[in-house]
Structures are given as C-alpha cells and as structure tokens.
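We emphasize that the prediction below concerns an isolated chain of 436 residues; any contacts that depend on oligomerization or on bound cofactors are therefore not represented. The input was used exactly as deposited, without trimming of termini.
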Amino acid sequence: MPVKIVAMRTPFRSRPRTSPSPTGQRPLDAPDEIESAVPINTLGASPLIFRKRLQDQPAPPARGGDLIALVGPDNETLGFGYFNPKSEVSVRVLRAGETPPDETFWDGLLNRAVRLRRDILKLDDVTDTYRVIHSEGDCISGIVIDRYGDTLSAEAFGLGLFQRGQAILERLARIVGAKHWLLRPGPYTEAQEGFTAEPVSSPDLPRSVVVQEFGTKFRVEFLGGHKTGFFCDQRDNRRRLADFTAGKSVLDLCCYTGGFSITAKRLGNAAEVTGVDLDEQPLKIARGNAQLNAVKANFVQADVFPYMRDMIRNNRQFDVVVLDPPKLIRNRAELDEGTRRHFDLNRLAMQLVKPDGLLLSCSCSGLLQDADFLRLLYSASRQAGDAIGPADDNGFQRRGPRDMQILFRTGASPDHPVSANYPESDYLKAAWMRLS
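Result of the prediction step, given as a token string:
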C-alpha cells in the first residue's frame, strides 16, 4: 500500500546501521525500512537524478546505497530510488509513485524481463546465452545480468544495485532455473560511483561454461573476462555476418574470444579467418572455441594499429573485415580523443578491404552519436585509398577516395531493449559498408 513520507517534517526512526561495509550485500528493502527522504521539484522521465538537481541531502543522512523517498514541493511522494552521495548520479530511481518497491514489485519486474526473452523473442529456441536484465531497458538502472547456460553473470555499476545484487540474482535464478551466479562491480565504479568491491558468487560457481548460439559453441570464462563474460549484444550481427562470408577471406579486428571469427567459419563457411586482439587470455579462449567447433582459424596477438599498417605495407586485403573495438569513450572528457581513435581505426581498416568487399564497423561508445559515427566513417572513406603498390611513409598509398555504400545499420540484439525514458542506453552502433 502507498506510504506517505513527508520530507523534512516527519520524524524518522533511528535504526542501527546493519550493513557490515559500504559494499556489503543487503536484502531487498521492506517498505517500512525507508528512513530518508530528499526534496526534488519534479521526478522527470530519466531514472538518473544528478546531484545538482537535489535541493538538499536526505534527512536523516542516508548511507550510500540506501533506498530513499523522493518528495515534491508539496511534500507528496514522487518515487523511490537508491542514493549514493559519492556519485554525480546521486539517485537511481527504481519506482515512481507513492508505493515503495516490495516483493510483489520485484517479482513483477523480473518476470516481465524474462517473458520478453522467452515468450516474445523466443531466445531459448536458438541459444542458451542472452541478456536477462538490461539496466534502464528493464527498469532497473545500475545492473546488467546475462545468462550463460545454468549460470547468471551480473555487472553492477550502481552502488545500491551492487549491494542488492545477490538478492536479485537469487530471486532471478529461481525464475529462470539457473544454478549458479556471479556478481561483480563495473570497470569504472571507483571513478564514477566511489566504491570498489570484490566479486561475490554462489558457492559452487564453475570456472567456465560452454554455451551455444545458433549451434556455434563458445566457452565463457567468468573470472577475469570483460563485462559479464561474453558479448551477447552482437549475437544477431554475428549471425548476419555469416551470410556474407562463404568462400571469403575474413579479418576480425579486436576479436576478443572469437565470436565473429568462429561464426564466420562455422556458419558462414569462410575460406580463411584471421582474428586479432591485444590480450592473450581472450585469444587462448578463442583458439579453444575454434577447437570446440572443429574449425580452423588463425588468431594473432597484436595491437591492431601496427598490425593494420603492416598488412597495408604488405598489400594484404580481405573480402570481409570486422572492426569491433572496445569502448573508446567512457566519459565526455574522452569524446574528442575517442572519436579520433575511431576515425584512425576505420581509415586503416578500410584500406584492408578488397574492392567490392564488406566492412562491418562497430562502436559501443554510447556518447558517440549516430550522426557523428556516420560522419567519421564518411571522412575515413575520403582518406582511405586502395593499398596498392609500395606504401609511403604513412603506411599506405592513396589512390583517391574509396566509394562507400552503407548497406544497413544495426545495433544490439533485442534482448538489450532501449527504454523510451532513457534513449542514452542505445549504445551499440554497427554500420555495414561495401567499399569500391
């Protein structure tokens, strides 16, 4: 039932602070445990409330991660969210309205997310690995959860959600029938949220698990990998790429554990596949993935910048090139430099594509807008001449601009839904280009 909280006027109870540490695991909140409130003019559509919008600190002072009430100018309860005084995102709104989140709310939220994947997208028919909770896209800002077979792997980048990650995972595991779970903080939580934490897992978490999508097998290592262990967002793009690789030579740049490479070979019957990545550990997994699928692929440990320059000097080109770099723009301070790096990567990659060949270029930097991404691709094509004859001192010989045709543009697989209230979560951009 609705709980009326009157900001700054109602005396709040004083309870012992029971969390053993700032990052200790906490149960999901009971409605009568909300002790703090903060005034705000309006709630707004976005689930993120930045510090400058708060009129005052909660009363009484709240711990980082506490569930607080948000109250309007007339002391009406507008909603509830997780508070973090160390973050520019001071509140992540969990629920709007006067009714605080309870067990029924959580069950409804999690079951709704599962129904999308199982009943609407029917992902269980084609894969046993997909994203089950996509942060704002599933109305739980601050956490993403992927399913890998019978294991759930979560990355929390909001303090309140990390503290309740175990409770959420255990509840979600009962719904989807998972046996194991892993919770770890996001890679930038120390800088953005002001906390560090060790991973938390179920007692018998396996070191790795083998999953499949469209019949192609992949091993997922849970500790030490990027993000939650595997990039489910590229699933449909991997499948689509296979339509263009039969009998072709394929270069997969920033290949990680070989998702595009293995799919191009196994499903796409590529004649030749080369994957390049700087990190040795993902490449070891990629080579193992090739063995799992009984396919032959060449994986090279190298920085892609000098690798591409060497290929250009040697007049090496490929029928299909995939460029899927890691996140190059983590915040607005990195926007200009990250955009330049995207430009340089694409300028070099375009020179490695044979005439009438295909380039799939991706960016997972949400701060790089679609129009800016397309603009830098166009500019890169103007500067990327065919790599023919002896290369000059810059590593390539220009023979006029390459004609670029964008065949289609795609994004993340639909198990990564975008909330209309938070369009910034539409982060993945993929441009499919034919180059003259």
